[in-house]
Amino acid sequence: MDFFLQLLVNGVCVGLLYGISAMGFVMIFKSSSVLNFAHGELLALGAFFFLALITWAQIPIFAAFILTLIGCFILGFIIEKFFLRPLIGEKLIFVIMLTVGLAAMFKGLILLIWGGNLHTYPDFLPESLALKLGAIYIAPVYTATLVISIIFLVLFGLFFKQSSQGIYMRSVADNQKAALSLGVNVRRVFALSWAIAAMVASMSGIVLGIINGVNVHDLSSIGLKVFPVVILGGLDSISGAIIGGIIIGLLETFTGGYLSPSLRDVVPYIVLVFILLIKPYGLFGLVEIERV
To answer: Is residue 256's pLDDT more than 80?
Structure first.
Protein backbone atom coordinates (compact mmCIF):
# COMPACT_ATOMS: atom_id res chain seq x y z
CA MET A 1 0.00 0.00 0.00
CA ASP A 2 2.84 2.38 0.81
CA PHE A 3 4.42 1.67 -2.59
CA PHE A 4 1.09 2.40 -4.28
CA LEU A 5 0.75 5.74 -2.46
CA GLN A 6 4.36 6.61 -3.28
CA LEU A 7 3.71 6.02 -6.98
CA LEU A 8 0.45 7.95 -6.73
CA VAL A 9 2.17 11.06 -5.36
CA ASN A 10 5.00 10.88 -7.89
CA GLY A 11 2.56 10.34 -10.74
CA VAL A 12 0.42 13.33 -9.78
CA CYS A 13 3.48 15.59 -9.56
CA VAL A 14 4.80 14.55 -12.98
CA GLY A 15 1.29 14.67 -14.42
CA LEU A 16 0.85 18.25 -13.25
CA LEU A 17 4.00 19.18 -15.17
CA TYR A 18 2.66 17.49 -18.29
CA GLY A 19 -0.68 19.24 -17.84
CA ILE A 20 0.76 22.73 -17.35
CA SER A 21 3.02 22.25 -20.36
CA ALA A 22 0.08 21.01 -22.43
CA MET A 23 -1.92 24.04 -21.31
CA GLY A 24 0.41 26.26 -23.34
CA PHE A 25 -0.04 23.98 -26.35
CA VAL A 26 -3.83 24.20 -26.02
CA MET A 27 -3.76 28.01 -25.73
CA ILE A 28 -1.94 28.27 -29.05
CA PHE A 29 -4.39 25.89 -30.71
CA LYS A 30 -7.49 27.57 -29.27
CA SER A 31 -6.40 31.05 -30.33
CA SER A 32 -4.88 30.33 -33.75
CA SER A 33 -5.65 26.67 -34.69
CA VAL A 34 -1.89 25.97 -34.93
CA LEU A 35 -0.39 22.67 -33.77
CA ASN A 36 2.99 23.55 -32.29
CA PHE A 37 5.44 20.76 -33.13
CA ALA A 38 8.29 22.72 -31.55
CA HIS A 39 6.86 22.29 -28.07
CA GLY A 40 9.44 19.72 -26.97
CA GLU A 41 12.28 21.92 -28.11
CA LEU A 42 10.86 24.82 -26.08
CA LEU A 43 11.03 22.55 -23.02
CA ALA A 44 14.65 21.78 -23.84
CA LEU A 45 15.53 25.45 -24.41
CA GLY A 46 14.17 26.37 -21.00
CA ALA A 47 16.12 23.58 -19.30
CA PHE A 48 19.38 24.51 -21.05
CA PHE A 49 18.92 28.26 -20.46
CA PHE A 50 18.58 27.51 -16.77
CA LEU A 51 21.62 25.21 -16.90
CA ALA A 52 23.72 27.94 -18.56
CA LEU A 53 22.68 30.57 -16.03
CA ILE A 54 23.49 28.52 -12.94
CA THR A 55 26.70 26.88 -14.24
CA TRP A 56 28.29 29.28 -16.73
CA ALA A 57 26.99 32.61 -15.38
CA GLN A 58 26.92 31.46 -11.72
CA ILE A 59 23.61 33.25 -11.12
CA PRO A 60 21.70 32.31 -7.94
CA ILE A 61 19.09 29.60 -8.43
CA PHE A 62 15.95 31.65 -7.85
CA ALA A 63 17.17 34.54 -10.02
CA ALA A 64 18.17 32.08 -12.76
CA PHE A 65 14.71 30.49 -12.64
CA ILE A 66 12.96 33.86 -12.99
CA LEU A 67 15.34 35.01 -15.75
CA THR A 68 14.74 31.77 -17.66
CA LEU A 69 10.98 32.24 -17.50
CA ILE A 70 11.29 35.87 -18.64
CA GLY A 71 13.70 34.94 -21.42
CA CYS A 72 11.44 32.20 -22.78
CA PHE A 73 8.41 34.51 -22.47
CA ILE A 74 10.22 37.01 -24.72
CA LEU A 75 11.28 34.18 -27.04
CA GLY A 76 7.61 33.29 -27.52
CA PHE A 77 6.90 36.86 -28.64
CA ILE A 78 9.85 36.73 -31.05
CA ILE A 79 8.72 33.43 -32.56
CA GLU A 80 5.23 34.76 -33.17
CA LYS A 81 6.35 38.14 -34.56
CA PHE A 82 9.12 37.04 -36.91
CA PHE A 83 8.09 33.52 -37.88
CA LEU A 84 4.33 33.07 -37.43
CA ARG A 85 2.92 36.52 -38.20
CA PRO A 86 4.27 36.66 -41.80
CA LEU A 87 2.26 33.50 -42.52
CA ILE A 88 -1.11 34.94 -41.47
CA GLY A 89 -3.60 34.13 -44.20
CA GLU A 90 -1.55 31.26 -45.61
CA LYS A 91 -2.70 27.65 -45.56
CA LEU A 92 -2.56 26.01 -42.15
CA ILE A 93 -0.18 23.30 -43.35
CA PHE A 94 2.46 25.96 -44.05
CA VAL A 95 2.28 27.17 -40.45
CA ILE A 96 2.45 23.64 -39.07
CA MET A 97 5.48 22.84 -41.21
CA LEU A 98 7.08 26.05 -39.96
CA THR A 99 6.81 24.77 -36.38
CA VAL A 100 8.43 21.51 -37.52
CA GLY A 101 11.28 23.56 -39.00
CA LEU A 102 11.59 25.59 -35.79
CA ALA A 103 11.83 22.35 -33.82
CA ALA A 104 14.70 21.15 -35.98
CA MET A 105 16.43 24.55 -35.79
CA PHE A 106 16.18 24.78 -31.98
CA LYS A 107 17.32 21.19 -31.52
CA GLY A 108 20.28 21.73 -33.83
CA LEU A 109 21.24 24.90 -31.94
CA ILE A 110 21.15 23.07 -28.61
CA LEU A 111 23.23 20.20 -29.99
CA LEU A 112 25.75 22.70 -31.38
CA ILE A 113 26.20 24.42 -28.01
CA TRP A 114 25.72 21.66 -25.46
CA GLY A 115 25.96 18.44 -27.45
CA GLY A 116 23.77 15.39 -26.98
CA ASN A 117 25.16 14.21 -23.64
CA LEU A 118 23.25 14.08 -20.39
CA HIS A 119 23.79 17.10 -18.14
CA THR A 120 22.78 17.43 -14.51
CA TYR A 121 21.98 20.43 -12.40
CA PRO A 122 23.92 21.07 -9.19
CA ASP A 123 22.15 19.63 -6.16
CA PHE A 124 20.44 22.78 -4.89
CA LEU A 125 17.15 21.52 -3.42
CA PRO A 126 17.52 21.22 0.37
CA GLU A 127 16.51 17.99 2.06
CA SER A 128 14.21 20.06 4.26
CA LEU A 129 11.79 20.20 1.30
CA ALA A 130 11.25 16.44 1.57
CA LEU A 131 7.97 15.30 3.09
CA LYS A 132 7.39 12.13 5.10
CA LEU A 133 3.81 10.94 5.42
CA GLY A 134 4.16 7.78 7.45
CA ALA A 135 6.23 5.38 5.38
CA ILE A 136 5.83 7.54 2.26
CA TYR A 137 8.83 9.65 1.34
CA ILE A 138 8.28 12.55 -1.05
CA ALA A 139 11.61 13.68 -2.48
CA PRO A 140 12.41 17.41 -2.49
CA VAL A 141 12.08 17.61 -6.27
CA TYR A 142 8.51 16.28 -6.16
CA THR A 143 7.61 18.63 -3.32
CA ALA A 144 9.01 21.54 -5.31
CA THR A 145 7.14 20.33 -8.40
CA LEU A 146 3.86 20.23 -6.51
CA VAL A 147 4.34 23.71 -5.05
CA ILE A 148 5.43 25.28 -8.36
CA SER A 149 2.56 23.62 -10.24
CA ILE A 150 -0.04 24.85 -7.76
CA ILE A 151 1.41 28.38 -7.87
CA PHE A 152 1.31 28.41 -11.69
CA LEU A 153 -2.25 27.07 -11.77
CA VAL A 154 -3.45 29.72 -9.32
CA LEU A 155 -1.67 32.51 -11.22
CA PHE A 156 -3.08 31.39 -14.56
CA GLY A 157 -6.55 31.02 -13.08
CA LEU A 158 -6.42 34.58 -11.79
CA PHE A 159 -4.93 35.81 -15.09
CA PHE A 160 -7.68 34.30 -17.23
CA LYS A 161 -10.53 35.32 -14.93
CA GLN A 162 -9.44 38.73 -13.63
CA SER A 163 -7.05 40.42 -16.09
CA SER A 164 -8.20 42.17 -19.25
CA GLN A 165 -5.66 40.31 -21.41
CA GLY A 166 -6.82 37.00 -19.99
CA ILE A 167 -10.43 37.87 -20.80
CA TYR A 168 -9.38 38.88 -24.34
CA MET A 169 -7.63 35.52 -24.76
CA ARG A 170 -10.74 33.67 -23.62
CA SER A 171 -12.91 35.66 -26.02
CA VAL A 172 -10.62 34.95 -28.98
CA ALA A 173 -10.52 31.27 -28.05
CA ASP A 174 -14.32 31.10 -27.89
CA ASN A 175 -15.09 33.07 -31.06
CA GLN A 176 -12.52 34.98 -33.10
CA LYS A 177 -15.11 36.79 -35.23
CA ALA A 178 -17.00 38.10 -32.23
CA ALA A 179 -13.74 39.16 -30.55
CA LEU A 180 -12.68 41.06 -33.68
CA SER A 181 -16.03 42.81 -33.86
CA LEU A 182 -15.59 43.96 -30.25
CA GLY A 183 -12.20 45.50 -31.02
CA VAL A 184 -9.96 42.83 -29.49
CA ASN A 185 -6.42 42.90 -30.91
CA VAL A 186 -6.31 39.28 -32.08
CA ARG A 187 -2.68 39.49 -33.22
CA ARG A 188 -1.64 40.58 -29.74
CA VAL A 189 -3.55 37.63 -28.32
CA PHE A 190 -1.71 35.29 -30.69
CA ALA A 191 1.63 36.72 -29.54
CA LEU A 192 0.68 36.44 -25.87
CA SER A 193 -0.41 32.83 -26.39
CA TRP A 194 3.00 31.92 -27.80
CA ALA A 195 4.80 33.82 -25.04
CA ILE A 196 2.87 32.06 -22.27
CA ALA A 197 3.27 28.68 -23.99
CA ALA A 198 7.03 29.14 -24.20
CA MET A 199 7.20 30.22 -20.56
CA VAL A 200 5.23 27.27 -19.16
CA ALA A 201 7.17 24.89 -21.41
CA SER A 202 10.44 26.23 -20.02
CA MET A 203 9.20 25.78 -16.46
CA SER A 204 8.26 22.18 -17.18
CA GLY A 205 11.61 21.61 -18.87
CA ILE A 206 13.52 22.90 -15.83
CA VAL A 207 11.66 20.69 -13.36
CA LEU A 208 11.82 17.62 -15.62
CA GLY A 209 15.54 18.33 -16.01
CA ILE A 210 15.91 18.26 -12.23
CA ILE A 211 14.09 14.92 -12.09
CA ASN A 212 15.64 13.11 -15.07
CA GLY A 213 18.68 15.18 -16.06
CA VAL A 214 19.01 17.53 -19.02
CA ASN A 215 19.30 15.89 -22.42
CA VAL A 216 17.96 17.44 -25.60
CA HIS A 217 16.77 14.12 -27.05
CA ASP A 218 14.90 13.11 -23.88
CA LEU A 219 13.28 16.50 -23.40
CA SER A 220 12.23 16.67 -27.05
CA SER A 221 10.58 13.26 -26.73
CA ILE A 222 8.86 14.36 -23.52
CA GLY A 223 7.50 17.30 -25.48
CA LEU A 224 5.78 14.82 -27.80
CA LYS A 225 3.79 13.51 -24.82
CA VAL A 226 1.81 16.72 -25.01
CA PHE A 227 -0.16 15.13 -27.86
CA PRO A 228 -1.55 12.19 -25.82
CA VAL A 229 -2.26 14.65 -22.99
CA VAL A 230 -4.21 17.16 -25.07
CA ILE A 231 -6.02 14.49 -27.10
CA LEU A 232 -7.08 12.77 -23.88
CA GLY A 233 -8.23 15.98 -22.20
CA GLY A 234 -9.55 17.64 -25.34
CA LEU A 235 -7.54 19.62 -27.84
CA ASP A 236 -9.51 22.79 -27.10
CA SER A 237 -9.87 22.41 -23.30
CA ILE A 238 -7.36 24.05 -20.94
CA SER A 239 -8.79 22.34 -17.85
CA GLY A 240 -8.84 19.09 -19.82
CA ALA A 241 -5.10 19.49 -20.45
CA ILE A 242 -4.45 19.52 -16.69
CA ILE A 243 -6.63 16.46 -16.07
CA GLY A 244 -5.18 14.67 -19.10
CA GLY A 245 -1.67 15.41 -17.86
CA ILE A 246 -2.40 13.94 -14.43
CA ILE A 247 -3.93 10.80 -15.99
CA ILE A 248 -0.93 10.30 -18.30
CA GLY A 249 1.49 10.92 -15.44
CA LEU A 250 -0.26 8.33 -13.27
CA LEU A 251 -0.39 5.77 -16.08
CA GLU A 252 3.32 6.23 -16.76
CA THR A 253 4.31 5.98 -13.11
CA PHE A 254 2.20 2.91 -12.32
CA THR A 255 3.31 1.17 -15.51
CA GLY A 256 6.96 1.78 -14.64
CA GLY A 257 6.41 0.73 -11.03
CA TYR A 258 4.33 -2.42 -11.50
CA LEU A 259 5.05 -3.64 -15.03
CA SER A 260 8.27 -2.46 -16.67
CA PRO A 261 10.16 0.86 -16.83
CA SER A 262 10.69 0.29 -20.55
CA LEU A 263 6.91 0.33 -21.10
CA ARG A 264 6.20 3.61 -19.35
CA ASP A 265 7.09 5.71 -22.40
CA VAL A 266 4.81 3.62 -24.63
CA VAL A 267 1.67 3.90 -22.50
CA PRO A 268 0.78 7.52 -23.46
CA TYR A 269 0.72 6.64 -27.14
CA ILE A 270 -1.40 3.54 -26.53
CA VAL A 271 -3.84 5.83 -24.74
CA LEU A 272 -3.65 8.23 -27.69
CA VAL A 273 -4.68 5.50 -30.13
CA PHE A 274 -7.60 4.31 -27.99
CA ILE A 275 -8.88 7.83 -27.35
CA LEU A 276 -8.78 8.63 -31.08
CA LEU A 277 -10.74 5.44 -31.80
CA ILE A 278 -13.30 5.79 -29.01
CA LYS A 279 -13.63 9.53 -28.25
CA PRO A 280 -11.59 11.52 -30.79
CA TYR A 281 -12.51 14.90 -29.28
CA GLY A 282 -11.19 13.91 -25.86
CA LEU A 283 -12.84 13.89 -22.47
CA PHE A 284 -13.67 17.61 -22.46
CA GLY A 285 -13.23 18.64 -26.10
CA LEU A 286 -15.90 20.26 -28.24
CA VAL A 287 -17.04 18.53 -31.40
CA GLU A 288 -16.74 21.66 -33.50
CA ILE A 289 -14.88 24.91 -32.90
CA GLU A 290 -15.68 28.04 -34.88
CA ARG A 291 -12.65 29.57 -36.57
CA VAL A 292 -12.02 32.54 -38.82
So the answer is: yes
Q: Where are the domains of the chain?
A: 14-225
Section 209-225 average pLDDT: 89
**In this structure, are residues 31 and 49 in contact, taking their beta carbons and an 8 Å threshold?**
no
Position 79 scores a pLDDT of: 95
Phi, psi of 119 (to 5 degrees): -115, 155
Q: Does pLDDT of 89 surpass 80?
A: no
Are the beta carbons of 124 and 58 closer than 8 angstroms?
Answer: no
Best CA proximity match to 179, nearest among 292, 84, 24, 34: 292
Distance CA 45, CA 210 (A): 14
Q: Which residues contact 154 (CB under 8 A, 6 or more apart)?
A: none
2-30 exposure pattern, b = at least 16 Cβ within 10 A, e = fewer: eeeebbebbbbbbbbbbbbbbbbbbbbbb
Average pLDDT, the chain: 88
* Per-residue pLDDT tens digits for 275-290: 888 888 888 876 544 4
Distance CA 120, CA 215 (A): 9
Backbone angles phi and psi of 121, in degrees to 5: -80, 155
